[in-house]
Amino acid sequence: MLATPLLSLAIWVPILAGLVVLATGADRNAPLARMLALLGAIAGLLVTIPLYTGFDLNTPAMQFVELHRWIPRFNVHYHLGVDGISMLFVLLNSFITVTVILAGWQVITSRVAQYNAGFLIMSGLLNGIFSSLDGVLFYVFFEASLIPLYLIIGIWGGSNRVYAAFKFFLFTLMGSLLFLIALLFLFVESGGSFSILEWHNLPLGLSTQTWLFLAFLVAFAVKVPMWPVHTWLPDAHVEAPTGGSIVLAAIALKLGAYGFLRFSLPIAPDAAHELSWLLITLSLIAIIYIGFVALVQEDMKKLVAYSSIAHMGFVTLGFFMFSALGVEGALVQMISHGFVSGAMFFSIGVMYDRMHSRQIADYGGVVNSMPKFAAFFMLFAMANAGLPATSGFVGEFMIILAAVDYNFWVAFAAATTMIVGAAYTLWMYKRVVFGAVANHHVAELTDINGREFLIFVLFAAGALGMGLYPQPFTEVMHSSVNELLRHVALSKIQ
Amino acid sequence: MLLMACVILIVDLVVKERKRTVIFVATQLTLVGAAVITFAISSGDIAYTFSNMYVSDLMGDLLKLLVYLTVIIVLFYSRDYILEREQMARSEYYVLALFATLGMMVMISANHFLTVYIGLELLSLSLYALVAMNRDSVPATEAAMKYFVLGALASGLLLYGMSMIYGATGTLEITAVAERLYMGQANKSILVFGLVFLVSGIAFKLGVVPFHMWIPDVYHGAPTAVALFIASAPKLAAFAIVVRMLVNGLIVLAQDWQTMLILLAVLSMAVGNIAAIAQTNLKRMLAYSAISHMGFMLLGLVTGIVDGDARFALNAYSSSMFYVITYVLTSAGTFGMILLLARGGLESDQIDDFKGLNKRSPWFAAVMMMMMFSMAGIPFFVGFFAKFSVLQAVVAAGYLWLAVVAVLFSLVGCFYYLRIVKIMYFDPPTNTAQIEAPLDMKILMSANGLAVALLGIFPQALMSVCAFALLRSL
């Protein structure tokens, strides 16, 4: 084990960098603020790389563990650690932060320091969520991460931003407050411990488990978001600035799914089995119904937002079939969705910066004026539709394979959405990029500049790399996923 | 007690002075001196003096120190506000503040129902006068009248309750009452009857529903400096008398008063949080928020004794104490911010006055945001751990439904705190004037904000101090 507290660095380097950026103050120092923010984000990414290179593939146990007393009065610890499930998200998050800072480089011109600081602080908090092994610590990061996103949507968002910011905040808070009570209940049940790992081994009766599971479900389903509590997401996405959408889609949505793996399944395994029909039904509704909803959207961001919900439906479907293939497929899907949806939102952002419209109807023939952009956009649209050789394919394919094992009709229903998914993405692509040049605004568009090109390359490397060679991603998950499933298969009722 | 005498002596000295700065300094020195004396004579043991009329214990000492500290902060915040207003620019503000402080001291260390009453009246009478200080202001006079009439009624209820308890137990000394109740030598029905009046009186002083009517009017009508005073230190003293009378004195009746307090707590959280949403005046909004916070604080007190089992008592009462302390800290900061923005004789107590504060002063907007998120109970701010520890006590006592009700109403409450943040950050400023304030106030305001954040990251120290103080005092 390494002596350096890598996880603490992953959390606190971005947060401190964020505070330094804040200190640059007014907009006249904006160039300085941008540079510092980029340096901070890159430093934040660099400190997470040893997490991957130093990761031990053969153990399902937590690695890079840090354990300190925090609030002894309630037996709360500053307890960090990652396993094969959470480690990749820390990396993904730090990576996305770099792209987000770059994405806002020229676009954000007011309150630059606050904007960049918001993203850096949020990045640290999100890393904290993924590496917390203490219930209270997890919760604290989980809720605190709402604040920066609330401000980002509200300050730099679109015309209806206030509504979207409030809806986002209150929806998520509603879920997490019940989650807090579940945590306190577990604290009492376990005789005074907030350790998530100890809770994993805590025997609980079925009815208790069911209540806990439902409390967790409310919190995480809002976050995922699952049908029918998804309505905040399209609003938040549409109103958020590009960077906010990227973080929201790429990272924030993963928190709910991650919560299922870290809390719901291991703490209440029997209830999870009992209620898996409910979760699978909800997931299928999300996949199919939301897929059709996406088809009729006029607003590109809304379309991608709905497609995110459908993709996350695949993730929850993968979890609740309790097979290694399904869970790993879901994890792959989560990471892949991080790259792909991030890139999709960035693409829309690129067009929006030039045209100040997200309506599909305002576009047409973009390929004529922005050929390079069209090429990249094509790649990500394909990945979003789940084309083989892109990362979008790997995860969905694994999940559908697992579903065939589980129940043919579930698999059938899930697989049909490959068609719907392709339909809404490619149809949007066709209407926006191909065809005759719609109006003189489109004709005057300038192609992407070096900065945007760089961001596209970063995203493309992720999406293609994962699609062509998923091994480095899946191998780190194996032992943790197997351990998780072994654990979930055991009953906790005594 | 020594301390009491000291305070009174120095108060007399101040009254003779007429120069404003001198009075301000002298007042502050008085408070610091009194705090030092309290700290010096605090032995940590329980000691009774003045024929058992007073008690000195660690809980009392801790609360007293905090009251001194709060009053010192309050006076710093109020100073300029008062100087700018002719009606109020007199030494009376400081003198009355000192008398009110003295009243709180008496309340905190009372070991006799009558001592509680004397302290309470001293505090209340000073506050009535303070509220009415701005003589020409119609809302202030109206607020003072309401406060006085309702306050007198509540005092009456309290006294009536005390007389019933005297009738049932034959004594008014809190420890003796507890003893006699424990021995079972009291008429239960008279006692419970008296208890109802006692609880009503207390509920009035705490300002919980349905005895909350005065709070919005007084907060709204009173000069901001006075509202700041009312919204801070007296809450600590009110907490102290609740513990003294109900826990120290009538613990045997815990089942009875807990049921009453649960009702009050739930009603307060509901009415406070829902009514606060509709307010456009920040002071009025904070008044409703105060009602809901007091309701939340009561939750800790109702979970002390479960089925006659006192195992959870310490945990529960100390979480309430932590809650009330952090509330006072946050509330002082919030009102301080209103005072900071109220410059040149103008008020800034409309919510819209905070519009675009982030553009005018990012730092103070950030401080205000910390206060708001802390009140809403969002981590990493101290308000979260306050809610956390109270909820923990509630869940530990097995009242899961109560915890769910509490969080649902905090969700409602979150809305109006978020609205303040929205006003400050999302809206363009209507007033672009620079914020001018004396350096000491700026520093203190910043320190207050940082305290809210730092205690939110390291709450352990204050939590264990509360727990330790109660452990040594109960």
TrEMBL record, chain A:
Subcellular location per the Swiss-Prot or TrEMBL entry: Endomembrane system; Membrane
Superkingdom of the organism of origin: Bacteria
Domain NADH:quinone oxidoreductase/Mrp antiporter transmembrane: 134-417
EC number: 1.6.99.5
Gene Ontology cellular component terms for the protein in this record: endomembrane system; membrane
Keywords (A to Z) from UniProt: Membrane, Oxidoreductase, Transmembrane, Transmembrane helix
Membrane topology designation: Multi-pass membrane protein
GO biological process: ATP synthesis coupled electron transport; electron transport coupled proton transport
EC category: oxidoreductase
GO MF annotation list: NADH dehydrogenase (ubiquinone) activity; NADH dehydrogenase activity; ubiquinone binding
Residue ranges crossing the lipid bilayer per the database entry: 6-24, 36-55, 85-105, 112-130, 136-156, 168-188, 208-226, 246-265, 277-296, 303-325, 331-352, 373-402, 408-429, 450-469
Family membership noted in the UniProt record: Belongs to the complex I subunit 4 family.
Protein name: NADH-quinone oxidoreductase subunit M
Gene name of this polypeptide: nuoM_3
